[in-house]
Design goal:
The complex is a heterodimer of chains A (118) and B (113).
Chain A (H helix, E strand, L loop, with lengths): L4 E3 L2 E4 L5 E6 L6 E7 L6 E7 L2 E5 L6 E5 L5 E5 L8 E8 L13 E2 L3 E5 L1
Parallel strand pairs in A: 2-11
Antiparallel strand pairs in A: 1-3, 3-8, 4-5, 4-9, 5-6, 7-8, 9-10, 9-11
Chain B lengths: L2 E5 L2 E5 L4 E8 L3 E9 L6 E6 L5 E4 L2 E5 L3 E6 L8 E9 L9 E2 L3 E6 L1
Parallel strand pairs in B: 2-11
Antiparallel strand pairs in B: 1-3, 3-8, 4-5, 4-9, 6-7, 7-8, 9-10, 9-11
Classes of the chains: A mainly beta (118), B mainly beta (113).
Protein backbone atom coordinates (compact mmCIF):
# COMPACT_ATOMS: atom_id res chain seq x y z
CA UNK A 1 0.00 0.00 0.00
CA UNK A 2 1.51 3.34 -1.07
CA UNK A 3 1.37 6.14 1.47
CA UNK A 4 0.84 9.84 0.90
CA UNK A 5 3.40 11.38 -1.44
CA UNK A 6 4.19 15.05 -2.05
CA UNK A 7 6.21 16.93 -4.62
CA UNK A 8 8.50 18.73 -4.80
CA UNK A 9 10.51 18.05 -1.64
CA UNK A 10 12.01 21.52 -1.50
CA UNK A 11 11.24 24.74 -3.31
CA UNK A 12 12.76 28.22 -3.28
CA UNK A 13 10.75 31.16 -4.61
CA UNK A 14 10.93 34.93 -4.43
CA UNK A 15 8.35 37.30 -3.01
CA UNK A 16 5.42 37.90 -5.36
CA UNK A 17 5.81 34.66 -7.29
CA UNK A 18 3.26 31.84 -7.48
CA UNK A 19 3.76 28.20 -6.46
CA UNK A 20 1.94 24.88 -6.95
CA UNK A 21 2.45 21.97 -4.57
CA UNK A 22 1.20 18.46 -5.33
CA UNK A 23 -0.08 15.59 -3.25
CA UNK A 24 -1.08 12.00 -4.03
CA UNK A 25 -3.38 10.53 -1.43
CA UNK A 26 -3.05 7.08 0.06
CA UNK A 27 -4.81 4.37 -1.92
CA UNK A 28 -8.52 4.24 -1.09
CA UNK A 29 -8.60 7.66 0.62
CA UNK A 30 -11.07 10.22 -0.73
CA UNK A 31 -10.37 13.17 1.59
CA UNK A 32 -7.29 15.39 1.43
CA UNK A 33 -6.34 18.13 3.90
CA UNK A 34 -3.56 20.69 3.64
CA UNK A 35 -1.64 22.18 6.56
CA UNK A 36 1.06 24.83 6.97
CA UNK A 37 3.73 24.25 9.61
CA UNK A 38 6.01 27.14 10.53
CA UNK A 39 9.28 26.37 12.31
CA UNK A 40 8.70 25.40 15.93
CA UNK A 41 4.91 25.40 15.57
CA UNK A 42 2.21 22.80 15.13
CA UNK A 43 0.53 22.37 11.73
CA UNK A 44 -2.22 24.90 10.89
CA UNK A 45 -5.24 23.80 8.84
CA UNK A 46 -5.49 25.46 5.42
CA UNK A 47 -8.39 23.60 3.77
CA UNK A 48 -9.84 20.19 3.04
CA UNK A 49 -11.16 18.55 -0.13
CA UNK A 50 -13.69 15.75 -0.31
CA UNK A 51 -14.65 14.24 -3.66
CA UNK A 52 -13.27 17.27 -5.56
CA UNK A 53 -15.16 19.88 -3.49
CA UNK A 54 -13.67 22.21 -0.87
CA UNK A 55 -14.98 20.94 2.45
CA UNK A 56 -13.85 23.54 4.98
CA UNK A 57 -11.22 26.25 5.18
CA UNK A 58 -9.00 27.66 7.92
CA UNK A 59 -7.91 31.26 8.47
CA UNK A 60 -5.90 31.66 5.28
CA UNK A 61 -6.38 34.37 2.64
CA UNK A 62 -7.90 33.64 -0.79
CA UNK A 63 -4.45 33.61 -2.42
CA UNK A 64 -4.25 30.09 -0.98
CA UNK A 65 -6.35 27.89 -3.26
CA UNK A 66 -6.58 24.24 -4.12
CA UNK A 67 -7.95 21.50 -6.31
CA UNK A 68 -8.75 17.85 -5.96
CA UNK A 69 -8.81 15.59 -9.01
CA UNK A 70 -10.99 12.54 -9.79
CA UNK A 71 -8.19 10.22 -8.62
CA UNK A 72 -8.25 12.15 -5.28
CA UNK A 73 -4.81 13.67 -5.77
CA UNK A 74 -4.64 17.36 -4.90
CA UNK A 75 -2.84 20.64 -5.55
CA UNK A 76 -2.20 23.62 -3.31
CA UNK A 77 -1.64 26.92 -5.09
CA UNK A 78 -0.28 30.04 -3.43
CA UNK A 79 -0.26 33.36 -5.30
CA UNK A 80 1.65 36.54 -4.52
CA UNK A 81 4.08 34.79 -2.17
CA UNK A 82 5.08 36.60 1.02
CA UNK A 83 8.10 35.99 3.26
CA UNK A 84 5.81 34.59 5.97
CA UNK A 85 4.68 31.84 3.60
CA UNK A 86 8.02 30.11 4.21
CA UNK A 87 7.05 26.85 5.95
CA UNK A 88 6.65 23.09 5.64
CA UNK A 89 3.45 22.35 3.72
CA UNK A 90 1.84 19.08 4.67
CA UNK A 91 -0.79 17.07 2.89
CA UNK A 92 -2.84 14.45 4.73
CA UNK A 93 -5.35 11.95 3.43
CA UNK A 94 -8.07 10.10 5.30
CA UNK A 95 -10.31 7.24 4.26
CA UNK A 96 -13.62 8.83 5.26
CA UNK A 97 -16.57 6.51 5.06
CA UNK A 98 -14.88 4.52 2.32
CA UNK A 99 -12.72 2.88 4.98
CA UNK A 100 -13.23 1.21 8.35
CA UNK A 101 -15.49 3.27 10.59
CA UNK A 102 -12.94 3.31 13.42
CA UNK A 103 -10.31 4.78 11.06
CA UNK A 104 -12.53 7.14 9.04
CA UNK A 105 -11.22 10.37 10.51
CA UNK A 106 -7.56 9.44 10.94
CA UNK A 107 -5.34 11.66 8.80
CA UNK A 108 -2.14 10.19 7.38
CA UNK A 109 0.49 12.72 6.45
CA UNK A 110 2.95 12.92 3.61
CA UNK A 111 6.60 13.96 4.00
CA UNK A 112 5.85 17.61 3.25
CA UNK A 113 7.21 20.26 0.90
CA UNK A 114 9.65 22.77 2.37
CA UNK A 115 8.93 26.18 0.80
CA UNK A 116 11.40 29.02 1.23
CA UNK A 117 10.38 32.52 0.08
CA UNK A 118 13.23 35.01 -0.36
CA UNK B 1 -12.44 28.14 19.27
CA UNK B 2 -10.68 24.81 19.74
CA UNK B 3 -7.39 25.01 21.65
CA UNK B 4 -4.62 22.53 22.40
CA UNK B 5 -1.78 23.20 24.85
CA UNK B 6 1.13 20.79 25.23
CA UNK B 7 3.62 20.70 28.08
CA UNK B 8 6.46 20.78 28.68
CA UNK B 9 7.79 22.37 25.47
CA UNK B 10 10.92 20.21 25.67
CA UNK B 11 11.90 17.18 27.72
CA UNK B 12 15.29 15.59 28.12
CA UNK B 13 15.41 12.05 29.54
CA UNK B 14 18.08 9.51 30.24
CA UNK B 15 17.61 6.19 28.46
CA UNK B 16 15.28 4.06 30.60
CA UNK B 17 13.85 7.05 32.51
CA UNK B 18 10.05 6.90 32.14
CA UNK B 19 7.96 10.08 31.89
CA UNK B 20 4.70 11.57 30.62
CA UNK B 21 3.82 14.23 28.06
CA UNK B 22 0.71 16.33 28.65
CA UNK B 23 -1.91 17.61 26.20
CA UNK B 24 -4.67 19.88 27.54
CA UNK B 25 -7.55 20.71 25.22
CA UNK B 26 -10.74 22.76 24.99
CA UNK B 27 -13.29 21.85 22.36
CA UNK B 28 -17.07 22.20 22.23
CA UNK B 29 -17.46 18.49 21.60
CA UNK B 30 -14.66 15.99 21.08
CA UNK B 31 -14.80 13.80 18.02
CA UNK B 32 -11.29 12.43 18.49
CA UNK B 33 -7.87 13.17 19.98
CA UNK B 34 -4.81 12.19 17.97
CA UNK B 35 -1.14 11.71 18.81
CA UNK B 36 1.53 11.97 16.15
CA UNK B 37 5.32 11.64 16.17
CA UNK B 38 7.34 13.98 13.95
CA UNK B 39 11.03 13.64 13.12
CA UNK B 40 12.93 16.78 12.01
CA UNK B 41 12.00 17.86 8.48
CA UNK B 42 9.51 14.99 8.07
CA UNK B 43 5.73 14.69 8.09
CA UNK B 44 3.86 13.62 11.24
CA UNK B 45 3.54 9.86 11.77
CA UNK B 46 0.23 8.65 13.21
CA UNK B 47 0.43 6.97 16.63
CA UNK B 48 -2.99 6.84 18.32
CA UNK B 49 -6.60 7.97 18.19
CA UNK B 50 -8.65 8.28 21.40
CA UNK B 51 -12.39 8.91 21.28
CA UNK B 52 -13.78 8.91 24.83
CA UNK B 53 -12.67 9.64 28.40
CA UNK B 54 -11.12 6.62 30.05
CA UNK B 55 -9.86 5.15 26.81
CA UNK B 56 -6.25 3.90 26.69
CA UNK B 57 -4.10 2.67 23.80
CA UNK B 58 -0.61 1.17 23.78
CA UNK B 59 2.11 0.66 21.22
CA UNK B 60 5.53 -0.63 22.25
CA UNK B 61 6.88 1.79 24.89
CA UNK B 62 4.05 4.31 24.41
CA UNK B 63 0.69 4.46 26.15
CA UNK B 64 -1.91 7.18 25.51
CA UNK B 65 -4.74 8.00 27.94
CA UNK B 66 -7.67 10.42 27.74
CA UNK B 67 -9.78 12.39 30.24
CA UNK B 68 -12.43 15.05 29.54
CA UNK B 69 -9.82 17.82 29.63
CA UNK B 70 -6.45 16.29 28.83
CA UNK B 71 -4.49 13.42 27.38
CA UNK B 72 -1.21 11.92 28.47
CA UNK B 73 1.41 10.12 26.43
CA UNK B 74 3.36 7.88 28.80
CA UNK B 75 6.79 6.70 27.67
CA UNK B 76 8.14 3.68 29.52
CA UNK B 77 11.89 3.00 29.51
CA UNK B 78 12.56 5.25 26.49
CA UNK B 79 15.37 4.62 24.03
CA UNK B 80 17.35 7.19 22.01
CA UNK B 81 15.28 6.28 18.93
CA UNK B 82 12.19 7.68 20.71
CA UNK B 83 13.71 11.16 20.35
CA UNK B 84 11.28 13.23 18.25
CA UNK B 85 8.58 15.89 18.51
CA UNK B 86 5.25 14.55 19.73
CA UNK B 87 2.17 16.37 18.47
CA UNK B 88 -1.32 16.26 19.94
CA UNK B 89 -4.39 17.26 17.90
CA UNK B 90 -8.16 17.39 18.42
CA UNK B 91 -11.02 16.96 16.01
CA UNK B 92 -14.30 18.60 16.98
CA UNK B 93 -17.80 17.18 16.62
CA UNK B 94 -19.36 20.36 15.26
CA UNK B 95 -17.25 20.46 12.10
CA UNK B 96 -19.56 17.94 10.49
CA UNK B 97 -18.04 16.46 7.37
CA UNK B 98 -14.99 18.71 7.74
CA UNK B 99 -12.59 16.70 9.84
CA UNK B 100 -9.90 19.33 10.38
CA UNK B 101 -7.31 18.81 13.11
CA UNK B 102 -6.30 21.52 15.59
CA UNK B 103 -2.73 20.91 16.77
CA UNK B 104 -0.67 21.92 19.76
CA UNK B 105 2.88 23.21 19.29
CA UNK B 106 4.39 19.84 20.13
CA UNK B 107 6.80 18.51 22.75
CA UNK B 108 10.40 17.89 21.73
CA UNK B 109 11.70 14.78 23.45
CA UNK B 110 15.42 13.99 23.63
CA UNK B 111 16.57 10.67 25.07
CA UNK B 112 20.25 10.42 25.99
CA UNK B 113 22.01 7.05 25.85
Amino acid sequence: ETGVTQSPTHLIKTRGQQVTLRCSSQSGHNTVSWYQQALGQGPQFIFQYYREEENGRGNFPPRFSGLQFPNYSSELNVNALELDDSALYLCASSPGLSGDLWDADTQYFGPGTRLTVL
Amino acid sequence: EDQVTQSPEALRLQEGESSSLNCSYTVSGLRGLFWYRQDPGKGPEFLFTLYSAGEEKEKERLKATLTKKESFLHITAPKPEDSATYLCAVQALYTGANSKLTFGKGITLSVRP
